[in-house]
Specification:
Blueprint (H helix, E strand, L loop, with lengths): L12 H16 L4 E7 L7 H21 L3 E7 L15 H4 L20 H15 L5 E4 H6 L4 H9 L1 H8 L5 H6 L3 E3 L14 E3 L4 E5 L6 E5 L5 E3 L1 H12 L3 E5 L3 H14 L5 E5 L2 E2 L16 H7 L2 H9 L6 E2 L4 H18 L6 H5 L13 H10 L5 H11 L9 H18 L10 H16 L6 H14 L5 H13 L7 H8 L1 H18 L1
Parallel strand pairs: 1-2, 1-9, 2-3, 9-10, 11-12
Antiparallel strand pairs: 4-8, 5-6, 6-7
Length: about 525
């Protein structure tokens, strides 16, 4: 790929991050950049995993376009970590209880499909990443330790053992401080990842000396070859040092760990990678999302209601700001993505999020109908089958079929699912005020006078005129009335477009039904 230095001035955060990596390589003289994402395989991949890999991939692509240099992304699994507790949602939990403390790749797979629990979850991670077409190289901590990839770095850490401890000790309580070592030896008999003080660290002899607190037996363990692993903050630094990682992003909750790991990396004699801290997700009430609370949105839930590109759109927007991640953000993300896709196909600009989502260009068809409009249509007709919506769609967009409009077909299915699951249970109609009732009567007269094939803009202009005639303090109040009184929803897309899609006769029926309903309850 040919370098394009002009991209350095692009006002888009992936290029701003890519410039940091380019500057780092210019100083080091490296000819290839290494990007990394980390993963703890004691649980399953989640929406945060998607966000971190997607964002890192955008920075990586921006770097390659900016510099013309090759790069690689490693998805690193910390599968040599010890299992601290058995997750509640696993089958055959009793199978794992005797193996607490052992490496995830050294304990049975409760699902019975792989050689170990770690191998099972690693396979789930790879399938997850492959599902979205990410380009990456999978890396197993167990394989790297046992295969010798970390041997030189481990010996270097042993040589700098006291200096590494000096970085970590001020962050620990008195009791932990007395026993802390960056090395966790693997027990030669039980296979448990031991957290014990090191009595001796002998790098020249490739040896750690420690005592089993339960048996009192003294052990000598090799530093290299998988005989031990590093405690996690030191492990992060060890990985950066050993592999020469140039870029890694992480969440706000790991800011202190990034600083500590960076300090350890420098103690070992290397510069830590360029870093980016992304903000964490909040629920609809502004509370931090927690797995234990279950107040988050899963990736399966998002994909039930929207195409994956819309999730990329959501992840792209302002990663340095906390964002609310709940069901109501999905429709906006979908329509924002569709608008950006249309702009991309007209003018490929690197400031456009869709440019990054599609790596510069895309022939993927968009949708002639917004997702918000489809959801309002599904709500009005109480849709439970796609064909119900396609009957209206064909009148609005003649010739449109699921085959000719694959994105639209996807959105139809998503709109029905969203309506059935999220809208129908909460659907309520409010009564109009006297002002609104008069405006709705006026709307009936206007609709009856309009030709049935009137364009959306013609209808929208008439709606504006009605709002002005009836002296609403704000035209938003008038359009709010249309959605809340006629559709039983708080908001929606341009109502003129909805009328053109649903049809003028059908909309007349909605207004008559609303006025009749209001009169019956008055």
């Amino acid at each position: 790929m040919t370098a394009d230095p002009s991209l350095r001035s692009v006002k888009a955060w992936p290029f701003e991050e890519a410039a940091k990596v380019a500057d780092r390589l210019a100083k080091s003289g490296k000819a290839e950049a290494l990007f990394e994402t980390g993963y703890g395989p004691s649980g399953l991949p989640h929406i945060g995993t998607f966000g971190e890999v997607a964002r890192t991939s955008w920075v990586r692509r921006a770097f390659e376009r900016l510099t013309g240099l090759p790069s690689k992304l490693i998805a690193f699994s910390d599968d040599m970590d010890g299992l601290r507790k058995v997750p509640e949602n696993l089958p055959n939990r009793e199978l794992l209880l005797p193996h607490l403390g052992k490496s995830l790749t050294a304990i049975p797979d409760p699902f019975g499909t792989h050689s170990s629990f770690g191998a099972h979850n690693n396979a789930r991670l790879r399938a997850f990443l492959d599902q979205f077409g990410f380009e990456y190289e999978f890396a197993s901590s167990t394989d790297y330790y046992k295969g010798g990839r970390f041997d030189a770095a481990l010996l270097r850490m042993a040589e700098r053992h006291d200096a590494v401890r000096a970085v970590i000790l001020p962050t620990l309580g008195p009791e932990r401080r007395a026993t802390y070592s960056p090395f966790l030896p693997i027990h030669p008999e039980t296979g448990v990842v031991m957290q014990v003080p090191m009595e001796e660290v002998r790098p020249a002899e490739d040896l750690l000396v420690w005592t089993d607190p339960e048996t009192g037996r003294r052990h000598g363990t090799r530093i290299t070859g998988g005989g031990c692993k590093a405690q996690w903050k030191a492990d992060w630094a060890l990985r950066w040092y050993a592999l020469g990682v140039d870029y890694e992003m992480s969440g706000k909750d790991l800011i202190d760990s990034v600083k500590l790991s960076g300090a350890i990396c420098r103690v070992m004699g290397a510069e830590p990678p360029a870093a980016f801290t992304y903000e964490l997700f909040l629920d609809e009430h502004g509370q931090k999302i927690s797995k234990s609370k279950g107040n988050g949105l899963t990736i399966d839930e998002w994909l039930r209601y929207a195409p994956p590109e819309s999730l990329s759109q959501f992840m792209y927007n302002q990663p340095g700001r906390a964002k609310r991640l709940h069901f109501d953000v999905i429709p906006k993300a979908v329509d924002e993505y569709l608008a950006n896709l249309e702009k991309l196909q007209a003018t490929p600009e690197p400031t456009n999020p869709a440019w990054h989502i599609h790596n510069g260009s895309s022939n993927m068809p968009g949708s002639p109908i917004s997702f918000a409009m489809l959801m309002n249509l599904a709500s009005v007709v109480n849709a439970n089958e796609p064909e119900i919506l396609w009957g209206f769609i064909r009148r609005y967009a003649p010739g449109a079929t699921p085959e000719t409009e694959p994105m639209l077909a996807t959105l139809v299915g998503c709109a029905i699912s969203y309506y059935q699951d999220r809208v129908a249970p909460e659907k309520t109609y409010r009564r109009p005020s006297d002002l609104e009732r008069a405006a709705l009567q006026d709307l009936l007269a206007v609709l009856r006078a309009l030709p049935e094939d009137s364009a959306a803009e013609v209808i929208q202009n008439q709606l504006f005129e009605i709002g002005k005639r009836h002296a609403f303090a704000n035209l938003r109040d008038w359009f709010g009335c249309l959605y809340q009184v006629l559709l039983g929803q708080q908001e929606g897309p341009r109502f003129g477009g909805f009328v053109a899609l649903y049809g003028i006769p059908g909309t007349i029926g909605l207004v008559e039904a609303a006025l009749s309903r209001e009169a019956a309850t008055a």
